[in-house]
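--- STAGE predict ---
source: upstream dedup step, 1 unique chain passed
mode: sequence only
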Amino acid sequence: MSRSRGEVDSVFFTGQGEAGIATELPVALTEAVLQRGQQRYNIYCSPCHNYSGNGEGMIVQKGFVQPASFHDERLQAAPVGYFFQVITNGYGRMYSYASRVPPEDRWAIAAYIKTLQYSQDAPVADLPADVRERLEQASTETGAAAQAAPEAVSSAQAEGTAPEGAD
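--- STAGE serialize ---
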């Protein structure tokens, strides 16, 4: 039993349960956990993986090898425990962060990565009603503008005022 944490399941420290890699967080998922995960992700992960998780962080711009995108199909399907284990043990060129990032922060980062993945591929039906409304409104306005553009070019051509190459 830990003096600072009390009795803690071994999954918390390893990311591995009896059935294999943990598929669920061993801590409660709260807004505070996600905010902490985002903060820690921005510090430790974004230099390589970028703020969006696409693997195009600053290190790539400086000539280093690009890490994997969290939005690749393989990593989209990875359970949350996988990310905890990679942060803990390292993977490929990535070194272990176990001595730099405590377990609770590693879980927070892993939860944030899964949220980041979801944010890039969320079904519209999962959005709040007000956001769906704004999205539909913007889509309608964009569609109307796209339809109006060819008509405006045709009209300008008929009047002889269309810029060259506008056909």
